[in-house]
Amino acid sequence: MSLYGSCGIADTVGVNFADRDQALCYAYDVVRELMGCREPQTRTWRLDVYEDHDRRVFEIPLARLDETLDHLAPRWRSRIEDLSDRSRALLETYSAARITMR
Amino acid sequence: MLGQASEKNAFLSELSAAELGALRSHLAPPELRVGQCLHYLGDPVEEVVFPNSGLIATTMPLRDNPGAAAALVGRDGIVGAFPALATAPAASDAVVLIGGQASRLSAVAFRYVLDQNPSIRRRVARYAYAMVVQSQQTALCHAAHPVESRICRWLLAIQGRCVGDRVPLTQSTLAQMLGVRRTTVTLVAGRLEAAGVLKCHRGYMQIVNQAELERRSCECHALLNGYVDKLLALAGETPTVGEVPVRATAPERPGRRAI
Asked: Is the dihedral of CA B45, B49, B54, B58 positive or negative?
């Protein structure tokens, strides 16, 4: 699994699962643990799940599982999720640009 | 030598020569092995352990997983004092996370010595209470604080009970203590490493920037240390006759009569 916010962090060890459904359940648990008690700060993150360390099988934007947004009407929630995705892309671009400037 | 080893445990170090003498003949020096369980939830506590080094966690096991840690005990504390004193079954497992040396005595001898020595009993009560306070703070921390702050807090708590800047635990063990997935700990540790706070190695983590780790930790670490330091500083005080405090009249609350 890899976590993307302003930079990418990878779990290079990995976890073995019998099938993709189990891997997805585990990934959802990881997302909830990462988000818990700091949802606004982590809403722009994304967790990617890879099979055999090279093939990306799931992309999980953390905003999608943010329970603090459950009270919103679907279109507002969708806008916040979209905004979170754009913010992450901007942060990643900014981070990449900073690296090239060093 | 046993006499020198027992001085490394904070509780035993505080005892006067007479108090230590009362205990010394009952003390034996065991080695603490990683993974050893000193007592299990629900079982009678046969021995009280005074760690001189190493680290023990009291954990609350669940039906389908080992559960999370409620408190840590190193050379700063005592394992099994409360249930041994009360002749009560253990309220948790006590698992050795980091090996080391300790002094131990049987629960029967422990109760006998405390019955004969009220001053030791009072000190033990404060150390046992410090564990209760730690468990309370941990429960609040688990409920209210994000996982990254909690990880920083536990790293500080473990490093404070070890020598040097190394935390000799695997990420799997740390995940188990916190009741989270190993991947969660790995990703958080990766973020801390990217920020220059930690260096992750196989089998241990090295704290590189202590000040930043403290800044990222939740308030529980500082609160707990401050409270326990004050609590244990009182351990040497002996109440004297004539100084029993008089309770002031409590203000009346709605629905309740003033006492």
From this structure: positive
To the nearest whole angstrom, how far is the Cα of A7 from the nearest Cα of chain B?
A: 9
Neighbours of B258 (CB within 10 A): 8
Which CATH number is associated with domain B1-143+219-235? 2.60.120.10
Cross-chain residue pair A30–B194, CB shorter than 8 Å: no
**What are the structural domain ranges in chain B?**
1-143+219-235, 146-217
Query: Which residues is B198 bridged to in the sheet?
Result: B207
Domain B146-217 bears CATH identifier 1.10.3860.10:
no
Q: How far apart are CA A41 and CA B145, in angstroms?
A: 13
- The Cβ of residue B27 has, within 10 Å, a number of other Cβ atoms equal to 19
Q: Are B28 and B50 in contact (CB under 8 A)?
A: no
Pick the residue from chain A with its C-alpha nearest to B188: A34
* Average confidence (pLDDT) per 10 residues, chain B, 259 residues: 56 88 86 93 94 92 80 93 92 93 93 92 91 93 95 93 85 93 94 93 92 95 90 63 44 44
